[in-house]
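Re: the pair you flagged

First of the two:
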Amino acid sequence: MRLFILLSLFFGLITSSMAHHVLGRPSYGLNEDSNTPPSMQVETRIGKYFVTYMVYPAFPRPNVVGRINLYATTIDDNKTFDGEVTFEISDDSYFSSNSETIGVQTIDENVYRQRFVVKEAGNYIITAKFIADEEPYIIDFPLRIGAPAKLTLPIIIIGFIVVILLIISITQRRKIQQIRIRDTNKDK
């Protein structure tokens, strides 16, 4: 019985000392991005570079700080781009064409990090620009801030078409009924 108690205490001490790991990762290695998936992660090839960007948090909201992580490496020798990247944001509406610079970043541990805050919900375009070997590189990617609108332009257009078709159908039925009434009155 004593052996059983000693073995269970020994096993308990061993398992409690390993409790700081979460799914194989030590807890001291976790940061604000560790448990939050990105709202988007895109990998693309542009010119001589392979670019990966991620946007945090998973569901960006108005007046909440968001983060962009951008990685740029050369395709040939996998060297990290070491320069400045300019980040801009613009409204992705049908009648908007102005953009605002949200920051110019230098490399920090092989990644370009940019924080942003958007005041209103909507669709936006984030633009990352850099110049390498006297050649401009521009990467645009869409970003949705807040919950999507319930009435979008395609839904409004479809609703308008349905209403017009209903009005035409009702007026045609009335004309047909009036013609039938006239025909029955003529027969009498």
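Second of the two:
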Amino acid sequence: MSRALVLNASYEPLCVVSARRALLLTLNAKAEMIHESGDVFRSERSAWTVPSVVRLLHYVKVPYRAGISVNRRAVFLRDGGKCQYCNAAAESIDHIVPRSRGGTHTWENVVAACRPCNSKKRDRLLEETNFVLRSSPREPKQRIWLAAFNPMPEWLNYLGVSETVSA
């Protein structure tokens, strides 16, 4: 099933919903269609273009900033799909302080890594290896969690992500 990006009245990305929900928002005059997906919903007597991006007509105040969950796709997006040890194409994620040694699964402890570097590092600390991080990992400031939904090309302008990284 296709999905649609929902923008606040200020064009700030809010969430990703099903295409059906996005169409209902537009039909109920709660949102306007910004981009079409190219698909069509049909009934016996009508046909509606399926939206890919909709903008709410009234501003919705978000009471708090939701934490961004740590997952493979989001880590790859944050690190640009490159190994943080050797700059090769990343294939997996690595815990800087291994979980077997008390490391946590948090943004500050997880980086993208290529398979050879991840295998060489194993369950050792950085001090026990000759690996050096290219940059210190931290939680992304932007709404990268939306990009983790494998965004459509027309979403990228609103998400602030220049390109997608396959994970």
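The helical segments are 19-27, 72-78, 115-121, 144-147, 156-159.

-B.
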